[in-house]
Amino acid sequence: MSAPIQADVIVVGGGIMGAATAFFLRRRGVKVVLLERGLVGQQASGVNFGNVRRQGRFLPQLPLANRSRAIWGQLSELLGEDAEFIATGHVRVCFRAHEADRLEAHALAVREYGLELEILSANELRARYPFLAPGVVAGSLSPLDGHANPRLAAPAFGRAAARAGALVVENAEVLAIEKPGDDFLVETAAATYRAPIVQISAGAWGGTLSARFGEKVPIVARGPQMAVTEPMPYRIAPVVGVFSDNEHEGMYFRQVKRGNIVWGGGWRGPAFPDLLRAYIDPMNTLRQFPMVTRVAPGLAQLRTIRTWSGIEGYLPDDIPIMGPSGKVSGLFYAFGFCGHGFQLGPGVGDTMAELIATGSTPIPLAPFHISRFAMQ
Amino acid sequence: MADRRVVVVGAGPAGTRAAERLAAAGLRPVVIDEAALNGGQIYRRQPAGFTRPAEALYGFEAGRARAVHGAFEALSGLIEHRPQTLVWHIYDGALHLLCGTKAERLPYDALILATGATDRIMPVRGWTLPGVYSLGGSQIALKAQACAIGAEVVFMGSGPLLYLVAYQYAKAGATVAAVLDTSPFSASVKALPALATRPAMLAKGIYYTARLALRGVAVHRGITPVAIEGDDGVAAVVWRDAAGRERRTACDAVGLGYGLRSETQLADLARCDFAFDPIARQYLPVTDQDGRTSTPGVYLAGDGARIQGADAAELAGRLAACAALRDLGHSVPAAEFASLRAALAPMAQFREGLDTAFPWPAHFAAGFADSDVVCRCECITAGDLREVALEKGAPELNRAKALSRVGMGRCQGRMCGPAAAEVLADALGVPVEQVGRLRGQGPVKPLPIATEIVG
């Protein structure tokens, strides 16, 4: 085999996290290689719901989410491609009084982080969103949030990174990764790469790679249960999510400008990382129907034309692994985003690039450090 | 053993003969069919109140149609017939059924998929105008409802159905403005040896062509479609003749089709392995000679496995049932397997002959203007596909789908899939097998959100 290809940073995994990191590293002038086993943005980054949502998050994650939201707003100019981001607003609705109390408490708590939510009464909700069911008692609107097209966003980051000078290598599965000296050596079938810094951003497969450096994490793969309807005239602007203690009631949906209504939530299905496949359990789709029409009864007039799933990595505390390794210098992680990574993607890329290039970032990452699992 | 549940999907020639063989072995198979009445597409039965004789509906095939209908009727009480029922998904050893707005999960021990075929479409500018139908659709309108798609009809495309439907329309009293066949006459000559393996079938083809000539219907071979024109509906077909001269034929409807495409979505959802079939230029489920797929307990028969026509489907249905029975532990005579396999052998050769005589015009894909619509559900043009191929680096169909929406609409690529593959392959400069196939995703057909779980 010929001599290793040298870079400053090797990013392993071309989902939205890795592609955005490569892009922002290039903007800082760092020589970066992005290695992707299949095609950029093909797994969880490409099959998720497309939510660009900040409300309802783990509070210490909000600085990162805010940074990401700012980038979403400039994405077309940054990338030179449209990922269909629209700030339609994101509304969380509930059906029970005690849930309404918690929405209000959340609105107060996030204000500290600079996120202004608007609490809406049942009447205000119906006046603004006549498609909502009469049983909805209250809602919380995050006016600057919205949605984007997950099929386009990560590939757009990958292409923009390549245009900016990153070496983006698709169909390049990592066969071996080690740090024999000062540099890491990363081997694929076609070439070997060498760099002093590696970022693992391999989604549900991230745990397999971190384990090679002695950092095992209890990550499990699950598949969201997604569906889309036939198109109808564009009437539903905001992303709608149900806030409930009952996981099965937790549906979310949005209408794209084309007219189709996309939904997910309620149940998760089996995912098989080794086979690169995740499946829809058809019973889940059928169970979602009454949960969707419970929020928007008018949708009962429509038909669903496609369902899909994808492979997402979940950790027991439902927050990702992000930041430097606890054991190996020069090694960084950004994986396991527990089904809520899409909105964060641009911010993760910007933050990781900043951390890697400058050695620090104002975004608090301590809660996401991999060592939280090493302690157990 | 008696309570093992064997399910047959489809009540056409293959499904009927499969059910018959299973019932003969003492099983009580479940037969699921989308239509209200048995017969499939080729032997589709007319609705109640229609009284045309079988000869008027099926022509030369009246005898076979009667036999298949009769065989199914004789199974009354011996099978569980579930008409007007769609299998919308297959998961974890169970079928997911939809009847009206009632959904039911039906586990199976063995499954015979006899899902038939649908038209294979190569788009042409204007193909989305009202008044353009698929050839199969044109025939169903006549067969089921005694309706013609227009008063002056052009039939365009290729394949034996082109001549049969034109003949049936002419006979029923419609004006056939022209039959425009994209396959050259020389292709038929080249195919003759293979076609001669079934002389009666060959003779029928010659008969239809001769009858069309007698009625003064213009038949043109080796044409190239240019456009279907009109404002609110079809007004004319513009085409180039074999000598390259542009011509225009006035009409108010067009029947369009290029042979048939196996309906393989259920085999895909059952996770059967697929392989590229160079004759069909389509990825097809892999089976052994008796119809066993790579998924244990799942069998294929008839045009849903590969296009060989109704007579072959009857044999293949029975053979797949024999294979299922043997795998379930029933005793099936070796001689029965041998005779069915032997009877099927010439069918395959005849089919190859048809594909030689009436080739799928893959090369038209290169000639599409960027503005020509390939995916009609999502209005995705040839130019959109070329852009994702060349500028966004889509190396295969599923990536092209993700980036362009091709195949993401109501038909889920059933209509546009083959042409989209050709446009993509042409843009990338690779053989069509290299762009792969659209992955199947449930539901097979649109599923009402008002659907309720029963059972």
Could you state the CATH homologous superfamily of the largest domain in chain B?
FAD/NAD(P)-binding domain
Q: What percentage of amino acids of chain B are in beta strands?
A: 15-25%
CATH architectural arrangement of the largest domain in chain A: 3-Layer(bba) Sandwich
Kindly report the spatial arrangement of strands forming the biggest sheet of chain B: 3-2-1-7-20
Strand content of chain A: 25-35%
The CATH topology label of the largest domain in chain B is: FAD/NAD(P)-binding domain
Q: Structural class given helices, strands, pairing of chain B?
A: alpha/beta
Supply the CATH superfamily name of the largest domain in chain A.
Answer: FAD/NAD(P)-binding domain
Largest interface: A-B, 31 and 30 residues
N→C terminal distance of chain B: 24 Å
Describe the protein's architecture and organization.
The complex is a heterodimer of chains A (376) and B (455). By secondary structure, chain A is α+β, with helices and mostly antiparallel strands. Chain A has eleven helices and 24 strands. Chain A has helices at residues 16-27, 44-47, 62-72, 75-79, 97-111, 122-128, 150-163, 206-211, 282-295, 345-358, 371-374, and strands at 5-6, 9-12, 32-35, 51-52, 90-94, 118-121, 138-142, 146-147, 167-169, 176-178, 184-187, 192-195, 197-200, 220-224, 226-229, 239-242, 251-255, 261-265, 268-272, 277-278, 303-308, 312-314, 321-324, 331-335. In chain A, the strands form five sheets. Chain A has an eight-stranded mixed sheet with strand order 6-7-5-16-17-18-15-21, with helices on both faces. In chain A, strands 9-3-2-13-24-23 form a six-stranded mixed sheet. Chain A has a four-stranded mixed sheet with strand order 1-12-11-10, with no helix packed on it. In chain A, helix 1 (16-27) runs parallel beside helix 7, helix 1 crosses helix 10 and helix 3 (62-72) packs across helix 10. The termini of chain A are far apart. Chain B has 455 residues and is of the alpha/beta class. Chain B has 14 helices and 24 strands. In chain B, helix 5 (160-172) links the parallel strand 10 and strand 11. In chain B, helix 1 (13-24) crosses helix 3 (62-73), helix 6 runs antiparallel to helix 10 and helix 9 (310-327) packs antiparallel against helix 10. The longest helix of chain B has 24 residues, at 334-357. The mean pLDDT of chain B is 95.
